[in-house]
Structure prediction request, 199 residues.
Amino acid sequence: MPEYCTCGAQLVENARFCHRCGRPTFEAPPEKPTPVISLPVQPTLHEKIAQLPVSFRNPIALRIAFLMSLGITLVQMVPFLGLLCFVWWTAAGWCAVLLYRRMTGLSLSVPAGARLGSITGVLAFVSMAAMIALRMFFEGKELVAQMVKQDPRISEVVNDPQMFAMAMLMLLGICFALVVGFCATGGALGARRLSRKTG
Prediction:
């Protein structure tokens, strides 16, 4: 460090500036830029839920499956439309995948679409079973009488509790397999079709 400034003034020891003219006595080393620490962007709750795998634990998938199963139930209450139940079950799986993509912005794989369709099918089967149980509770005797008129052998099944229980379990099992199977097929087809459109 020089003892005198260029203006002729004697400098004080360790002075950074001249007390007369204000000129710096030495060049300061360049300051190191402070590193900017960028924090990772936290995903929102909706994005976290949307990234969950498609299952009964995914609230978005469950809500969509419930809406689709409710739609199936309402359509099947219409007498003539109820005859096309296989079409509605497949369409419900397809529409569930489409609605999931609209709500989350994510495309589902074919297995995930099938899982969403099967969840829709399970909920649709539960609502159908509840409707059948209510109808049997209120109109059971009349329905059984009509069935016996059509086929007298049905009275043997109805009068034997064990045979009746086995027949009901078999009927429910077949119905469950059909509903879940068609809905899962619709979900898989919908996921495949939508992935082709984006690809």
Q: What stands out?
A: The helical segments are 45-50, 59-77, 85-104, 110-150, 154-159, 161-198.
